[in-house]
Amino acid sequence: MAARLVPVSDPGDPRLADYVRLRDVNLRKSLETEHGLFIAEGEKVIRRAVGTGYPARSFLMARRWVEPLADLLDTVDAPVYVADDATVEAVAGFQVHRGALASMERLPLPPVEDTVAGTRRILVLEDLVDHANVGSIFRCAAALGIDAIVLSPRCADPLYRRAVKVSMGAVFAIPYARMTNWRDGLDALREAAGFTLLALTPDQSAVPLDKAALGERVALLLGAEGDGLSSRWLAEADERVCIPMSGTAMANGVDSLNVVAAAAIACHALMRS
Amino acid sequence: MAARLVPVSDPGDPRLADYVRLRDVNLRKSLETEHGLFIAEGEKVIRRAVGTGYPARSFLMARRWVEPLADLLDTVDAPVYVADDATVEAVAGFQVHRGALASMERLPLPPVEDTVAGTRRILVLEDLVDHANVGSIFRCAAALGIDAIVLSPRCADPLYRRAVKVSMGAVFAIPYARMTNWRDGLDALREAAGFTLLALTPDQSAVPLDKAALGERVALLLGAEGDGLSSRWLAEADERVCIPMSGTAMANGVDSLNVVAAAAIACHALMRS
Known about the structure:
2 copies of one chain form a homodimer.
Chain A: E1 4-7, H1 25-35, E2 37-41, H2 43-52, E3 56-61, H3 70-73, E4 79-82, H4 85-92, E5 101-105, H5 112-116, E6 121-126, H6 131-143, E7 148-151, H7 161-166, H8 170-173, E8 176-178, H9 182-193, E9 196-200, E10 207-208, E11 218-223, H10 231-236, E12 239-242, H11 247-252, H12 259-270
Parallel strand pairs in A: 1-4, 3-4, 6-7, 6-11, 7-8, 9-11, 9-12, 10-12
Antiparallel strand pairs in A: 2-5, 3-5
C-alpha cells in the first residue's frame, strides 16, 4: 500500500479541521472530545501511537517530513495532507517544530478494575490539571516500572497534545484508566483489588517513603502541586508518606519539590521491592 | 522610609527599559549581561531575592500589587513604577500573571573554590541550555539538601527570569558558581577540593546510584537531556552511575527520564549519608 499523499494549501480546508488552533486549550478539549481524537506530534511520538494500535484519522506535514515517515505512512490507511510550513502554521496556530502531526482516534478506556488487574505498583493521580506534569509523570512511571496509572475523574487528559509530547509517548506505553467516581474510587481499589494505599504528602511528620512498608500491591496517591491531595484521600489512605526534605531547606523556606520531581523519587522508591 | 511610587503610563518610558520584551531570550540575555541585572517575578520570588541581599534597581507593577508588597517596598531604596495592566503587558510583551516585577542587580559570582568550601554534596551541571530545567534542578537541590551547584561555562543562567520563576526562588537559596574553564574544571574540583566525581548516565551498565560508594565529598555530574555528559567528563569521573530503569520500559523503548526527574532521584539518593 502506498501513502495517500494529498496536497493542501488552504488553511480553511475542512479536511484539516482536526488540526486547528492546537494551543487553544478550551477549543481543543471540546473538539477532541466531540470527535474522539487526539494529536500526536513528531516522528517518534507518531510511531509510538501507531505502534500501540491507535488508528490514524489523517496526517498533516510539510513535504520534507514525508520521507522519514514513509515506511509507516505506507502501512496506514489514512490521508497524508502535505502543505507548506506557512499553511501548517496557519492551521495549527503556531510553528510546528517537530514537523509532522497526526490525528489519531481515541480508543475506549478500559474500566479501572481491568487496568489494574495483575499489577503490583500503580500511581493514582488526583486532579492534576497541568498537562505537562501529567505527561512527565507518565514518562517517569513508564521508565521506572510502574505497572499502571489511575486518574481521578477531574485529572487532566494524558492524550492532550502537550501531555503526549512531554511524555515522549509514554502515555501509550503504560496502561491507564479513569475513575468514574472520586468519592468511592479509593475504596474500590483497596477492597476489590487489595492495594495498600500510600498518600504522598509534603508533611514531614509522615513516614519517610524509604521506610514505608510496601505490601504486595501498592497504590501511590499523588495530588496536584499547591493543593496536594484532598483531605478525603489523605484520610482514606492506609499510610501517609513523605520525601524527607533538608533541614536547611526547611529553614530557608525552600520546602517543596514540584510534583514531577516528587513522583520521580517516589516511583524510584517503589522499585525497591 | 515610604515606598517611592511613580505612576507611569507610556510603555516607551526609558525608566522601564529593564523590563522590555521579557520573552525575547536573545534580547534579554544581552540586555541583562550589559546592565548586570535580572528580573524577579511574583511576590514570593521578589521577597526571596530581596531577602537574599540582591539590591533592587526598580519595581514595576499594577496598583493592586503594591499593597501585598508594601512592607518590603517601604524598606527598599528603589522606585516602584505603577502602571495599568495594559502598560505592563505592552512593556513586558506578555500578560504578567504573577503581578509584580522587580529588576534586581546581579552580584559578582564567587570563585568555584570559595563556593564549594565546606560542602559535602554538590551538583555539577554541564551545558544545560534549558532555563526551566536549570531552575527545576535548583529547586530539587535546595529541597533535598545539596550544598552548592557548579555550572559549566556554557550552562544556562540560573538568574534568567524563567529559571528564577521555576525554581520558586531556590536559585537564591543555594550557593552556585560558574567554572571559567570547561577542560580543567573537573580536575580542579577533584584535586584541590577532594571531591569524588560521580557521572550520572542513562547507560544501564553503570553502577546503580543506590549502590555507589559515597565518599566524604561527592560531586554529581549531570549533562543535558539528549546529549548527556560529554565523553570527556564521563571519562574523567571517578565512577559512572545510573538510575536503574524497568526492564519492561527498556523493551518498550521508554528508556529515559527527563533531566529534572533524574536529578531529583539523584539528589534524594545523595541524602542517604
